[in-house]
Amino acid sequence: MKMASYEDKSVKPPNGYWRWGECRANGASVLIERRAVWVNSALMVALVFAAIAYLSLGSLTLMPREVIMALAGQGDMMTGFMVQELRLPRLVAACLTGGAFALAGILMQTLARNRLATPGIIGIDNGATAFAVASVVGMSVSIAPSTMALTGAVTAAVLTFGLAAGSGTQGYRFIVAGIGVGAVFGAITQLLLARVAIDTANAAYPWTVGSLNARSGGSVHLLGVGLAVGFVTALALARSLTILRFSEATANGLGVNAKVRRIQILLLSVVLTALAVAVAGPVGMVGLIGPEIARALSTPRHVPVVAATLAGALVMVLADLMGRTLLAPIELPVGIVTAIIGGPWLLWILMRPQRSHA
């Protein structure tokens, strides 16, 4: 959004923008990008329809009208239990984790100025997973997986940043260092699982592939708070995110302290990833697919923070719905579904010409 002068009412807003509001105190109005409004609205509508389908389909198929009645506290007891107690909490977890993964992804991609620099690809997911699994199978004292996931994500980020010394968060050295760190933490996870009893390993298995079956109510609530704070913070940093796509000298010249902003954005991405991993495990491809959908639909003038968050939630909901229904009664973990979808998507990104914006 931009500020326009109130004094000259005859000046039309730039092409592609609406002018909203006129403040007599400081003589300014707000410019709203039209395409962003339409894209965000379309993604929100798509998410609502996907949510209704998610609540309707499963071992017991319900009509949309029955779902709406159950959400309103009406209808028979069995339908209300199925919708409100079984499917709705999982739907909320899918929306929150998908939104958090995608928001962390677009923040990291903007920070590194590289479309491949998602938390999953640069090792943050694996770091969070290794520490979360350790809290379940490898420690004599039980510590909350969400706390351990945050510790692991921070550790992986610090190691990646340290190994990429000299290049900061830019360039392929940062990505290669992250891949190496992720491989090490992945090996640690497998070692932990190999050294425990089979029942304990089965309990930790969902953490390794990404699944919403192992969600914890406390972790979901913590993720909800974290995503809300992170989303508002990302919106507040929207102008800085756009400017950081340019060189550090340009950013500093435009009044943005590039070093401070990069640290803030990196921390925000790490926290969002850790909280999402604490709920669903490493569902890394959502952080790649969500931002790509948002960028494909949006203009390159701004970083599509809102669109990426909504697209990530939509991808997660649809992926978990497919995992629950495609091979029913066998259920596929959502991490496997997103990997099947995200693998070809990653190849397409690698083979497609690089665009000028992050």
UniProtKB/TrEMBL annotation:
* Organism of derivation: Halomonas casei
Protein name per UniProt: Iron ABC transporter permease
Magnesium as a keyword of this entry, yes or no, is no
Name the family the entry cites. Belongs to the binding-protein-dependent transport system permease family. FecCD subfamily.
Query: Upper taxonomic classification of the species?
Result: Bacteria, Pseudomonadati, Pseudomonadota, Gammaproteobacteria, Oceanospirillales
Keyword set for this entry?
Cell membrane, Membrane, Transmembrane, Transmembrane helix, Transport
Q: Where are the transmembrane segments?
A: 37-57, 91-112, 124-143, 149-167, 174-198, 218-238, 265-290, 302-322, 334-351
Q: Where in the cell is it found?
A: Cell membrane
Q: Name one Pfam family in it.
A: FecCD
